[in-house]
Amino acid sequence: MGISRNATARWEGDLKSGKGSLSTPQSGLLDGARYGFNTRFGDEKGTNPEELIAAAHAGCFTMALAAKLTEAGHPPESVDTRAEVDLSMEGGPTLSAIRLKTRAKVPGIDDQKFRAIADDAKQNCPVSKALSAVPISLEAELLG
Prior knowledge:
The chain is of the alpha+beta class. It contains four helices and six strands; from the N terminus they run βββααββααβ. The longest helix is centred in the middle third of the chain and has 23 residues, at 49-71.
């Protein structure tokens, strides 16, 4: 049996002057979060799909890395990840790149083993797999 999560979106009006809202009814974390043309393609306050993809990817990868480090006998003290999602406008909007940048404090592990485990987490976290059509890079730093 799997797990199912959901979110809802509502849009009113045309693309440029219209407005939208996003909600996550199960958790209630997003409840009518505002998004629109200028929150996606400009600097107006509100969210956008790319930001939400970045949050999902950072969260999924970080949990996967913690799990894989623990399985290898090196439970982390901390893992901090930033995901950057690029939206290219060439030939129409498309996700063109994702960069994962992670820093972790992991006792008793060497840099080579840490990087190998981090790369495995990048390849195999469910969000990475779902986004496999987009080039995903990883910078992994082991903190002393």
